[in-house]
Amino acid sequence: MATSTPTDFSHIAEEIQDLLRMLGLTDYEAKAFLAVVYLGGSDAENIARIAQIPRTSSYKVLESLEEKGLVLPVEGKPKIYKPRDLKILEEGYLRKIKDLFSYLKLAQELYGEKGEPQIVYTLYGKNKVLQKLGELIDKSEEEIYLSSPRLHDIKKALSENIKKAVQRNVEIIIVTSRTQRPPPGTKVHYKDFLIATDLVSDSRRAFIADAELNACGFTENPVLAEHLKHFIEMLMNF
To answer: Are 144 and 171 in contact (CB under 8 A)?
Structure first.
């Protein structure tokens, strides 16, 4: 029977890390997650040693992996991080790929029959993206559909906007991962492996941003807004 040499495993580890980076993990996150899987669970110091990443960076890296639903913390001294069930992760990433192609189809619908884009505006820079998101929340009169893997960042920047919308009796429906806490007065549906931030305001305004909220597109086209709302409803019911 053939056995793996250290060199073989090193090559395999590099291949795994490359694939993890393709799924959106940073270099440190890919190394740390592979170490967690290899160890079956351990504390931050030991994970950093196996992953060969700075110990001072390991805590932030592991928190990020926890946010992304890849590791589960076990409270204690020290805190232990265990990998989430790989079968669940596999199913989640397959859904993520399916969602990606649904987004691509949605993007395709942003173009008219002659290939000319509908009226869709774009912004770049996290501050500008969050500012536009706040404006759309402020304009809402009846309902908001919000799907995001970065709800913590949105709450931190726009807590007052959300609070005032709730006070105006705007119904706010949120789709986010289980690691995120929804704002008071909102309805929440949990879904892991979200790949973008989407918002639909009063079925008339639509907003799509990348996972890190660094760029966005928005429109006041009701047809496109209805398409995006339907997509968020599919996420809720999947």
So the answer is: yes
CA-based torsion, 185, 180, 237, 211: positive or negative: positive
> Which residue ranges form the domains of the chain, and what is each CATH number?
6-84 (1.10.10.10), 93-237 (3.30.870.10)
DSSP notation for 37-100? HHHTSEEHHHHHHHHT--HHHHHHHHHHHHHTTSEEEE-SSS-EEEEPPHHHHHHHHHHHHHHH
pLDDT over 50 (residue 166): yes
Residue 56, burial from CB neighbour count under 10 angstroms (0-12, 13-18, 19+): exposed
93-130 as b/e, with b when 16 or more CB fall inside 10 Å? eebeeebeeebeebeeebeeeeeeeeebeebeebeebb
What's the alpha-carbon Rg for the chain, to the nearest Å?
20
Mean pLDDT computed over 205-222: 88
Q: Which helix (H) or strand (E) holds 21?
A: helix 6-22
